[in-house]
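User: Please run a holo structure prediction.
Assistant: Happy to. Please share the sequence and the ligand.
User: Here you go; the ligand is pyridoxal-5'-phosphate.
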Amino acid sequence: MSFAFAEINLANIERNIAYIKSKVGTHVEILAVVKANAYGHGSVEISRKLVSLNIRNLAVATYEEAMEIKSENIHPNILILGSITNEEIISCIKKGLLFTVYDISQLYFIDSLNLENINFHLKIDTGMNRLGLEPKEVSESLKIISTNESLELHGVYTHLPESNLADSAFTNKQIALFESIILETKAIIPSVRFFHIANSSAIFNFSQLELNMVRPGLALYGLSTEKNDQVFPLMKLKTSIVKIRNIIEGDSVSYGRTFIAKNEMQIGVIPIGYADGLPRALSNKGRVLYGETECEILGRVCMDLTIIDLSKVTNPQIGDEIVIFGNHKVSVNKIADISETIPYDIVCGISKRVKRVYK
Ligand SMILES: Cc1ncc(COP(=O)(O)O)c(C=O)c1O
């Protein structure tokens, strides 16, 4: 195949869900985060698989992402976590999509609507300083909701900026604040179904945080910011050699001539570049795999092509497979480390033109 493709092993999401369930217990609902095209894995296929595994709640970032899933006749509860316009809020109400109220003006807006069955989650900002109502706005919000029969508060949640640190005074302060908000909410609106706070690393690091719903994203896809052998990656990024050439001492490779051969060597060209999501930061730093042999990336990663060192490979041929990441030797985390970023950035960055192949 003369292009890059991402092989997605759907069986591994089942293993990852089983692991998350074993951590949180069966009384806790999983709100599976499938935003950003399911972290690059394909939101429709991933959502379909999750629903087949009896996951009843999915979360996306935008109205478009919610509609993409809904239009494929996949019908879990879908919660939009991110920013939303008032027009989109009206469409959500009519289409049965859950949305997040993260600013008190939105609450006044839905309170003014002449519509019924307005189901939503309330997001409270307890320290991220991103989306969410101020804790001091909670009382006023609960009063508005409790006095309008059309407003059905389905859930209340907050988000943690450093749940990857198991021992964080900041997180503990957020938890205490959110616990007081839960008590206040339950006292005024006992019908609220869900309270949630935990993303993947919070599930692993703060077992008291499960409440009755958790919001894993990264762990579903078998990835983790810290070492975790209990989850299994779904995505393997692969391509194949499209050109082989021999160069001699002093020859340069790729744009800017940042690699100069010190001796005679055999190099290969692979059809993947930064427009596919291969970070340009891997230029002269990254490695790919030919079988079990690690091959260095030579020179700058181009938009559509990258050049690799084949000197350690015996008799390479055009068409031979190259693994960019997804096995024990070149993991997403390793690529992220070299690129000075996080695994989220790597998988979300795999672009549309990389074909997803499901197994
Ligand atoms: C509000 C919210 N909840 C949950 C998640 C899932 O986080 P993770 O992928 O770390 O599990 C995200 C991801 O960015 C998020 O923004």
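The two ends are 17 Å apart (CA to CA).
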